[in-house]
Amino acid sequence: MRDTALSADVSGASATIEHAVRRATDHLLSLQRADGCFWAELESNVTITAEHVFLRHILGRSDSRELAAAAAYLLEQQRPDGTWGNWYESPPELSTTIEAYLALKLAGVSPETPEMAAARQYVLSQGGVDSARVFTKIWLAMMGEWDWQAVPMVPPEFVLLPHWFPVSIYSFACWARQTIVPLSIVLAARPVAPLPEAARIDELFVRGRAAGNSAVPPSRGGVRARAFLLLDRALRLHEGLPVKPLRRLALRRAEQWILERQEADGSWGGIQPPWVYSLIALHIRGHRPETSEPLRRGLAGFYGDTGFAVQGNETFHLQSCLSPVWDTALAVVALDETGLPTAAPSIARARRWLTGRQVFEGGDWQVRCGARPGGFPFEFANSNYPDIDDTAIVLLALYGSDAPGTTRAIERGIEWMIGMQSRCGGWAAFDRNNTQRWTRHIPFCDFGEVIDPPSSDVTAHVLECLGRVGRRIGDPIVDRGLRFLLREQEHDGAWFGRWGVNLTYGLGAALPGLRAVGVTPDHPAVVRGVEWLVRHQNADGGWGERVEGYTEPQWRGRGPSTASQTAWALMGLLAAGRAGHEATRRGVDYLLCTQTASGGWEEPQFTGTGFPTDFMIRYHIYRDVFPLIALARFSKALSGEER
Fold first, then answer.
1. Mean pLDDT over the full length of the chain
2. Which domains does the chain possess?
3. DSSP result, 308-371
4. What span, in angstroms and rounded, lies between the C-alpha atoms of 216 and 229?
5. Is the whole model's pTM more than 0.85, yes or no?
6. 219 band by pLDDT with thresholds 50, 70 and 90
7. What are the distances in angstroms from CA 536 to CA 148, 503, 528, 560, 572?
8. Catalytic site residues?
């Protein structure tokens, strides 16, 4: 009798989950584009749109209709207290609020409106413009609202240092060096595109503009930061010399470096910061859209069917980056997990699209790696900087396909990925052995991360990929990666999530990665990871983690439940062999209860990470792919079909 009741319970649960999986699958399939890819918005904060307004002004190409639409978006994103933040329900952020305020003034919004008055009150309460971050001050200096003398130095001669020198542009992560090179041209020229009088921001200086604090602050505390301030002062003395023998050569070399790295879509690196600074640098070097194809393509690249601009009915905003390869790979993994024959044609189309994105060209990563090209990018176009994390997930998505060219794509992808393994055994996102931590102390590095060291989540994804193609414990490459991942487990059993929020993301990657290469469920690291997940489950059965957990211990692993973070926890528990655990059942119930009528899930929270707390992102597809992966894997576990 007891066995019969248990069988009925399992049968009923299976039917419920199968129904949820079908609904989620149908919803995900509805998002596929005609060319086979999946691509959803990658949302960030309002500085991306504000800086686009600044860029158009600096280049003398402002558009009144776009300005009005951008202003409508900025006001739509303003919070009731008059501020702007860097993620959903984040604390107010001073520099973000200053940039939004200035963009609104450029768009003609009166400082006397209640919205502007509230923003101004907050800015002044936090110390005004004097307290803004360095990159905000650089934008202000380009528009005559900050003294160039109070901005850290980056001489263009820096570009001339060879890659084998103890310090060079290759000491920085790819996103940082792509920003530093054009900035070196900007900081040497110190351009000023004055604002209209009505748009100036004198009112944001607490003690008045003339009494502003012009000192360059250290990027952080410590002896190294103070030493770099002394170096900055020495560079200022050099800048004041009447003759700088290498300056012309350095500027030409920097300009050429920029031109050689423009992508097919007109961008630089497929991300906003190096893109806008490269356009300004080329403008300084005499390029004009009417006569310069790189500048024309660079400006046009923001728009179009695969552009960064998002046009609403009455609003306009810009994405910081596009994620079609990542989105498509995750969607294929999710659809493949369902085993539903209705998904097969869509999977085949998506796989064909992914195979066509493989990069067989060289890039900056070759400075420290001799492997043949074969990685995959994150964006539609980024041949210079393929992404190790994307490559691992794309290869997981391609595995099992018998389509022509797939075997070669997987072999070349594995070869490149293995070549990118760092000395410590782990894998980073874009570079190999990019671990010079002293770079974080340079004065202009007060925002975001400037190096790309190996991380637990990327390493775990690579191990999962290697395990899928049959490379397990005993393989030297796997063993080195495994030792790195086990060393990185934190004191309480979690793993740091570099590219997702945060410990839940780390565990959702680490536990499947460990299982894929042959680590057993009773391994102490696995047991400790499971215990962490059980301890941090919310009362509603889900898991959630606030962004503040990156820096504030009281939020470590805590926050309102979300669909993607719950799915990551379930993926970890299932990989650890805990399909029958009470925590797993409650997590599945949470996803079932929160699934919407459309078959997807709602998730306003930012669960993606660019730079922890400094730049957070919200992948709009996460709420659709990860819950489907978790439910499909749980369904397999119930039926005994799990891999």
1. 93
2. 45-318 (1.50.10.20), 455-643 (1.50.10.20)
3. SEEE-SS-EEE-SB--HHHHHHHHHHHHHHH--GGGHHHHHHHHHHHHTT---S--GGGGS--P
4. 8
5. yes
6. low
7. 48, 10, 12, 11, 13
8. 389
